[in-house]
Amino acid sequence: MQVSAELPLRANLSVLENIALVPQYRDNRPTRQAEQQAWQLLERLNRTACAGLRDPDLDSEQRFVAKLLRVVIGRPPIIVIERPGLLLPDSHYPSRLADCLAKLEDEINTLWIVDYRWNAPLYPPI
Amino acid sequence: MHYDRAMRWLIELLTRSGDALIAHLLPTGRVLRFGAIALAGIFSPGLYNSATRTVVQKQIYFTAWQIIGSFSLFAALLSLLLIQITITATRNYGLGDYALEVVLRVLVIELLPLITALFVALRSGAAINAEVALMKITNEIEALAEVGVDAMRLEFLPRVIGGVISVLALTATVSLTALVLAYLSLYGLQIHGLAAFSQVLGQVFSPGQVFGLWLKCLLFGLAVTVIPIAAGLDAPHKLFFAPIAVLAGMVRLFFALMLIEVGSLAITYL
């Protein structure tokens, strides 16, 4: 599953609803239970303040977190973050990304980051 | 030489006309296809989960519940006016005994369901059309599919269900209000007219007529949601096509509602 600038959040739903939608729809979880699960993920990233906001009211970091958690909550075998520079403009995104991913380490199976070759020096060597 | 030129002109004319006809018929075909998928999907038990139920509830809230007071008041005033005009006109021609039957046939069976469908089309149909077009244009449908959520099941079918329930509920509410107003206009606050009133009701609302009325309202409900959704899905991935998609959807919806009404009149009275 991809996290991409070209795959937006559902505009008429809040961040919490966007994330909770996946377990609600795919696993038929009751709304309250799915929202609790989404809330816990937001808490891990210290982003509960944006839980009630909709896409147009989010800054780029909040939007990225919402998109990432919407994918993470589904526990897919592989998560692809496509061009993080587009998702997190105006910031030193590799460190922000590393911070987020470290907090979600046990929720992610395999993660690929797809970025331009010329941005390779931004990432720590593996 | 002249023959060749004439043939070329004829072939060109036929090709152009054929292309125009196909371009005209394709959206109608897509509407019918979406309508068939929607009808099949509505009866699928797999459709219903907590997410889709929320969309149905929201659709009913925004389409029916939010406007039920103001729309009922408007319909009541219109009904009262038309009932008074009918009663006065029929009495002037010495046909006062037929006033109630005329009111029931014209107002309750024909006008109120059509006005309700037009109102819902203007208010919710246009909004649904714009929202679906924007979802298509901004890639929201693909984004939902990426996380394993089918937009058809989550967003479109629940809107059809909510729209149909809303049209049926609003029509039932305004029709019942009109029946009460018709009784009060003819007999006032007396109960002695109840027997005659019930007799005329029974004559007008035969089982066939009731079935036809519900079928018409059901088709109105389907039209006000299926046509805007199909028109929204027709929009290409370019933002400036959003108003064009809404315009095309609303025009198609108007003609579809009129076609249902004319068809219903033709079946009843011809």
Largest interface: A-B, 22 and 20 residues
Spatial strand sequence of the major β-sheet of chain A? 1-2-3
CATH T-level fold name of chain A: Rossmann fold
Relative helix content of chain B:
over 70%
Return residue spans of chain B where pLDDT drops below 50 for at least 5 consecutive residues: none
- Quaternary structure classification: heterodimer
- Average pLDDT of chain A, rounded to a whole number, is 91
Radius of gyration of chain A: 14 Å
Distance between the termini of chain B: 54 Å
**Span from first to last CA of chain A?**
23 Å
The chain-level mean pLDDT of chain B equals: 92
Form type of chain A: globular
Named CATH architecture of chain A: 3-Layer(aba) Sandwich
Strand content of chain A: 5-15%
The counted number of beta strands of chain B is 0
- Overall number of structural domains of chain A: 1
In CATH, the homologous superfamily of chain A goes by the name P-loop containing nucleotide triphosphate hydrolases
Please describe the topology of this protein.
The complex is a heterodimer of chains A (126) and B (270).
Chain A: E1 2-3, H1 15-26, H2 31-44, H3 60-72, E2 78-82, H4 84-87, H5 93-103, E3 110-114
Parallel strand pairs in A: 1-2, 2-3
Chain B: H1 2-42, H2 50-63, H3 68-92, H4 99-137, H5 140-146, H6 151-187, H7 194-204, H8 207-233, H9 242-269
Notes on the structure:
The complex is a heterodimer of chains A (126) and B (270). With 126 residues, chain A is mostly helical. In chain A, helix 1 crosses helix 2 (31-44) and helix 1 (15-26) runs parallel beside helix 3 (60-72). Chain A has helices at 15-26, 31-44, 60-72, 84-87, 93-103, and strands at residues 2-3, 78-82, 110-114. Chain A has a three-stranded parallel beta sheet. The relative contact order of chain A is 0.18. Chain B starts with a helix and ends with a helix. Chain B is an all-alpha fold and 270 residues long. Chain B contains nine helices and no strands.
